[in-house]
Design brief:
homodimer, about 475 residues
Chain lengths: ~475, ~475
């Protein structure tokens, strides 16, 4: 589960990237991927998510919401830094082999693809499993529907039962090459989905890329004995120093392109990688004028427009072929044919230091979330949501005091040496330099409005003395 | 000062219409109109503003801000309802005649025009004053620069000293007629600016439209003895019942088009009625790509776009000839050539009950303003600004309690029977059904954050017991 999704700005951002983005039809790409994994896996098979350590809580929260029955099977393997796909997948293979035996089959599913036909998907996976059982490293190839230059291609070779040998992998082609691939019928898009036995992958990697496997094994050994995260026994973060020493390389380049027994199963299922707002639009119903509208938006004398409102009214007048995406702090207006260039906006805004490229006004934390309602010179106002059983760090601020008013639920509050329950419609005051802690001991969310007074309201003015989430 | 300016949505709204809209170069149309009036009027001449009663405080606030030295000369004549221009101007003429004598000259300036060259304006006004002194009803005609179909035209007749007799007024023409007017050189745009002696207008109106002048005189008599508004001696509201009985008709139609001695002074000054976003754009500098940008906006591979941001980041990618206007609760995206159709949006949104057609998230009140920061199911959060010397009504709420935290200044607060000063970084609590009052006894603005808790947060849950502004 990686995928920054910068082409999906302003909704997809570093702090809440593409896999967590709400989809037009409801749900999220990560939730859909979990559902697919549940569909094709044995009832006791571990559901392993490899992702960045910063997304651990978001991921577990989402899983508990969409598949609470599978909670005991979830295992997070967390990357302390970003090192491409090979380190993450190879470490997962070592972990599976150690936990369940080398003959265990791994199905690797990127968390940012949309697949609707789960029955067909399951039958394609069954074909891949059979090939993997024979020792093949299996990829899934998507039959191309256009001369796409944004994907790598797989050229199929001799037929196998349920698939083909891979003749070769090819890099992202130019337009004419891509057109020739589509016309030729022997090339498939490489969607980054794989199926293999753990031992087959490890053996192939030892041969194909010992320069990667050496540091991967070192990292595995350095990490194996480590305690899981205090707040969740099913989240293991790889040892940072030895993880950082692994070359950042893709599993395709490190292993698949260099290995011998590589097979491809052409996908019979539908597939959309939601790579741009155009792809999102394909998932939205169109009205008589070809407009696709989500949220509070109105189109007058307009055609072929995609209007996404999350908070505010959008009104379009006399415009064609536009994609408009509105969020609490940023609005995108792009021509439909320029959806790929949205990343240019992100680059330009990042150069300007614009916060909207990384964070939303709503920020998720291990204990819940906060939304900035006002960020003024004289105060900052936030709505805080604390999840059941969660607790913020014991902390103090040097340059601001805080006024808390509980608007939903009952909070457990410590201010200085006093600890007490703060009910709905009650408020308390935390002076500058005063130790305080906020806790939810109930079984429902609590909401507070926090008014900060002071001369500096940065998130770095937090001195943490105790923290359940390891942030001291 | 009327002018709803629906073509300038989402910035111009009923609660803060076009004359108060911030202009790209700074200032407002109403402020500019006051400056023009100051430039050409005698130092003791009354500055009379005819406007709707609901805009009285906004108007006086603006005048105090931009021309405090002229405060003693300001007089508001307030309309209790909207009845077009004839009732307002004829009542003003009666008021001037009674106060300063019938030979007083009135210069009537709409508050929603932009004129930059004040010297030339003053010299044109001098010509009009000379003609008015002779008993002419003088209009100003704008030499047409395009075949505009949105204005009425004035055909000039024989020459007079400083101007021309008016041959006739013509209604808004079709495109070919407008083109013929521009080519012919005898037609001028009717800009709704007038100059006449009070007695000349009254006499002409008595002859031309007795059916209007009868009810106007009745309203004047019914209103004359009335007390001015308690909070400001220089604001007179016309008697509502008799004002409502006056036919709603324009001064052009009621008097100018039917009177004998009507003259026109062709305008030598520049003139922009800021009738649409296109006209606003003409006041903004253009970059190398023809983009006009205001606020936090970025244009990538885009041309001929006007981007107005008031609060959030706007990013445009690969688009041309668009007008984008962003406000706290609504975003407009219009093709540049469709600027006139923005009113269609307002009509459509009004039919949907969308609040953004009438009010902004920031609402102006006689005592200051408030901005809604959060409007949730469990609470409503506002930032309140109370101006120096102002006081909110003594009030109570039946369905909400309030938590106030002062973030700038010192407030005078009454809660129940207690009254006390609340300093910055202090808070207080107002229970349901408890009388309270908020006051600014200092000489600087105070700011508070108000957190409302309850089950209903409508503005109609206010029971006022005393109110300086007559709202009990």
């Amino acid at each position: 589960s990686g995928g920054a999704g910068t082409r999906l700005w302003p909704v997809s951002r570093k702090s809440l990237p593409k896999p967590f983005m709400p989809l037009p039809a409801g749900g999220t790409l990560l939730g859909g991927t979990l559902a697919r994994a549940l569909r094709v896996s044995g009832s006791d098979a571990p559901l392993v998510t490899v992702t960045a350590a910063t997304y651990a809580h978001l991921t577990l929260d989402l899983y508990r919401r969409v598949a609470p029955e599978a909670d005991a099977r979830q295992q997070l393997l967390l990357e302390p830094s970003s090192r491409n796909t090979a380190p993450a997948i190879l470490l997962a293979a070592l972990w599976i082999a150690a936990r369940r035996g080398g003959h265990s089959t791994l199905l690797v599913l990127p968390a940012d693809h949309l697949i609707r036909n789960e029955d067909v998907f399951a039958s394609d996976v069954a074909k891949a499993q059979a090939l993997a059982a024979e020792g093949h490293l299996v990829t899934f190839g998507i039959p191309p529907t256009r001369a796409e230059t944004g994907y790598g291609y797989i050229e199929r070779g001799d037929a196998l039962e349920g698939g083909f040998k891979v003749a070769r992998f090819v890099e992202k082609p130019d337009a004419s090459t891509a057109a020739a691939y589509v016309a030729g019928g022997r090339h498939l898009w490489n969607a980054g989905m794989f199926c293999f036995r753990a031992d087959a992958l490890i053996e192939a990697a030892d041969l194909a890329c010992p320069e990667v496997m050496g540091p991967v094994r070192a990292c595995f050994l350095a990490s194996d004995a480590r305690q899981p995260r205090r707040d969740d026994a099913r989240a293991l973060t790889w040892d940072a120093a030895s993880f950082d020493a692994i070359p950042g390389i893709s599993i395709d380049y490190a292993v698949m392109e260099r290995a011998d027994r590589v097979a491809v199963v052409p996908a019979s299922f539908d597939w959309n990688d939601i790579g741009s707002w155009t792809a999102v639009g394909e998932e939205m119903p169109s009205d008589a004028d070809g407009n696709r509208i989500r949220g509070d938006a109105i189109a007058i004398d307009s055609h072929g427009c995609q209007l996404h409102s999350t908070a505010r009214t959008i009104a379009a007048v006399g415009v064609c072929d536009l994609t408009v995406v509105e969020t609490a702090d940023a609005v995108l207006i792009a021509h439909r044919d320029r959806a790929q260039d949205v990343k240019k906006v992100v680059d330009a805004l990042r150069a300007r230091g614009n916060a909207s490229v990384d964070t939303h006004l709503t920020v998720h934390r291990p204990w819940g979330s906060y939304t900035v309602l006002e960020d003024g010179a004289d105060c900052k106002v936030k709505r805080l949501t604390v999840k059941p059983g969660q607790v913020l760090s014991l902390q103090l601020h040097h340059r601001r005091s805080e006024h808390w008013t509980v608007v939903t639920g009952t909070a457990r509050v410590r201010v200085g040496d006093e600890e007490f329950d703060l009910e709905r419609n009650h408020s308390t005051y935390i002076p500058v330099e005063t130790l305080h802690r906020l806790e939810n001991r109930t079984d429902t969310d609590i909401h507070l409005i926090e008014v900060q007074c002071g001369d500096y309201f940065g998130e770095d003015d937090i001195e943490r003395l105790e923290d359940r989430y390891g942030r001291v």
